[in-house]
């Protein structure tokens, strides 16, 4: 929920297309206290922060990136509804100046929405490098609103953008509304003449905006208007049909093509092209990455780098933490039995698990993920692997959710909403829980990386990939049907800015420290209690047919695996506690560690993932997914264990 | 699956490095808007940069803006291009 605004505060929202540097701008001004919340009733996340700028307190909201306000994407709809809610005092439209013509399409749509607004031309350095000379004064005149330039990654121009936003906040809008050709304007005039009161109540500010949305065949508005004022919706459909007939274009383009013409006209008026520096080196690197062979090299090299970094950095940090923690543990154990020392030990193990086990491996992973994101490597990987995914029956657009899944399965499942086709969405949702999320990576690296070596660790990732593909192939084999594929932007390669990468890592790390660590500590305490009361034997006993008989593991791993359902990292933490030592290698054989890691990697994802599946796809999918993961993990882990015994 | 008539050039058929303008988008509704949201309108000149392996998507560049978009083959098949080797450049 978005909290209420205080009286002396103004609300400024950042809106812009994906990859425009909106979040960089947000992070540049955000105070250290950033809240990540969801829009009411949805899973669409936004970030917000409170800042004071030149004496004015501001609630700054970073809306999800949107290409257009007429799109069917849920995030785009939510962003638009928030802008229409009247809660926003001023809007900063962040624009990638180097992609000015495409960005202006969205700017014009925002102008049609009639919110007080400032245009921030970000990435001006990029535009200059491309040889674009943008006449800001002219653009300002043509749009009728303040236009300021900025380079958010280095922090220039931002102050002035905010100064302008505060100035326009809550004022009457003076921007120049785009005027279409006569036919369209006549259509609009006819519609506005009979604009129903019921709609005026629903969207108080701009009737023209609503009429434009209908002419644009915006499905969302169409549905809403059809319920509120059916006859008006019918008239709008008729006007749209006439326009589309006149142009000989489909109805979805009845307005869009004309807006595009307006944008081209604007663009020609304000941009002069000089001979820019040819982006030689960068283009060469890009060519290398999107080359089949080069791409494979880059993908494998970056994976190796990730593991090595996580492995060596992780071990180095863990070693530092290990010595004092062992000493402390011994000191606590010296108190002897009793509830007090048991609880103290539980608390202590929880703290140590965060500091000594999870953090060392999490930091390098987050670091590399941030670098991948900031350089634009992720969409290039998607480009390279899309064809393979098609082979196993996955939708091309599944690439993005699947890649997100390596971070965390929950946002990945939410991202399946961008898939138009319900079958593709279902398959992707069922495959995502098999994608090794960062929590599971932590376990793999901490156990397999430490005891079984880098090659086995890499092999485990290959196994996970193979299992995901086999699952997808198995589900889709019976009902193969063609559906429309991926279309997505591939932003230029950019060099990562250390300051921004560090900030990103910090934000995500803080989430772990604030949210996950306390859970670890509480769970550790609970485990101590369970153990003190002698209940652990019951849980372990119930799970022993699986753990002991089938997987050939010690009965004591029952509780760690059970707790892994709540948070996967707990398995790792509790393993040490349950086995009575953090030196797992002394208690388990290498083949046992391998079986344990494979099982952990594949069995039912955490409660949060199941909840996300439930919310997105219903209880049937959540149940089916859990059963699927359980069956596959039991089969694969048990199979590998038996195979090793046989050899 | 796309109503592009026989004999017309589609985006899918461009060779690497070749440039042509979009003649028509043979799709409607959400798909069409999605394509347009990424800046692919009738009249825009596109250059085919690369094809992904394993029958993967195409990487195209909007020549005027330099923006790059990856687009699946089945979508590229719905985009009719002008066969304009005479006025290229």
Describe the model.
The complex is a heterodimer of chains A (647) and B (89). Chain A contains 28 helices and 10 strands. A 7-stranded mixed β-sheet of chain A has the order 2-3-4-1-5-6-8, with helices on both faces. Chain A has a two-stranded antiparallel sheet with strand order 7-9. In chain A, β3 and β4 (56-62) form a beta hairpin. Helix content of chain A is 64%, strand content 8%. With 647 residues, chain A is of the alpha/beta class. Chain B is an alpha+beta fold and 89 residues long. The interface between A and B is large, with 49 and 39 residues. β10 (487-489) of chain A pairs antiparallel with β5 (68-71) of chain B.
Please specify the SSE layout and strand pairing:
The complex is a heterodimer of chains A (647) and B (89).
Chain A: E1 10-16, H1 22-29, E2 34-38, E3 45-53, E4 56-62, H2 74-84, E5 90-96, H3 100-112, E6 117-122, H4 124-129, E7 132-134, H5 136-143, E8 147-149, H6 158-168, H7 182-193, H8 197-202, H9 207-215, H10 219-228, H11 230-247, H12 256-270, E9 271-273, H13 280-289, H14 292-333, H15 339-375, H16 377-391, H17 399-407, H18 409-415, H19 422-431, H20 438-451, H21 454-477, E10 487-489, H22 498-532, H23 536-550, H24 558-563, H25 568-579, H26 590-602, H27 607-617, H28 619-646
Parallel strand pairs in A: 1-4, 1-5, 5-6, 6-8
Antiparallel strand pairs in A: 2-3, 3-4, 7-9
Chain B: E1 9-10, E2 19-25, H1 29-37, E3 45-51, E4 58-62, E5 68-71, H2 73-76, E6 79-81
Antiparallel strand pairs in B: 1-6, 2-3, 2-6, 3-4, 4-5
> What is the number of E strands of chain A?
10
The general outline of chain A is: elongated
pLDDT under 50 segments of chain B (min length 5)?
Answer: none
The chain pair with the largest interface is:
A-B, 49 and 39 residues
**Morphology call of chain B:** globular
Helical element count of chain B?
2
The helix/strand order of chain B is EEHEEEHE
Task: Indicate the radius of gyration of chain A in whole angstroms.
Answer: 28 Å
Span of the ends, CA to CA of chain A: 57 Å
Structural class of chain B: alpha+beta
Strand arrangement across the biggest beta sheet of chain A: 2-3-4-1-5-6-8
As a percent range, the share of helical residues of chain B equals 10-25%
Strand content of chain B: 25-35%
Spans of at least 5 consecutive residues with low confidence of chain A: none
Report strand % of chain A. 5-15%
Number of helices of chain A: 28
